[in-house]
Write a structure and sequence with these properties.
With 74 residues, the protein is mainly α. Helices cover 72% and strands 0% of the residues. The protein has 5 helices and no strands. Helix 1 crosses helix 2 and helix 1 crosses helix 4. The chain starts with a helix and ends in an 8-residue tail after the last helix. The model has no long low-confidence stretch (mean pLDDT 81).
Length: 74
């Protein structure tokens, strides 16, 4: 199955940035969160690549401040 990983990363990043409940879910259960957004069950190496890409693009420190320290920042 061929797909554009960069596009999938961008899709998840946009969801993380726009939906604080999803951001929480992504932080707690990234694999499940990514699969929910993409609507498919991918092999672990592809999921982990997407998760790493999302984490690299999202400023979790900034989101954590907005969510009251949920990600270990206060």
């Amino acid at each position: 199955m061929a797909f554009d990983i960069k596009a999938k990363i961008d899709e998840v990043v946009n969801k993380v940035k726009s939906d604080k409940d999803f951001a929480t879910k992504f932080q707690k259960e990234p694999v499940k969160a990514v699969e929910d957004v993409l609507g498919v069950d991918l092999p672990d190496d592809q999921i982990n690549g997407i998760i790493d890409g999302v984490k690299a693009k999202v400023n979790f420190d900034g989101i954590a401040d907005k969510l009251g320290g949920l990600f270990g920042k206060k």
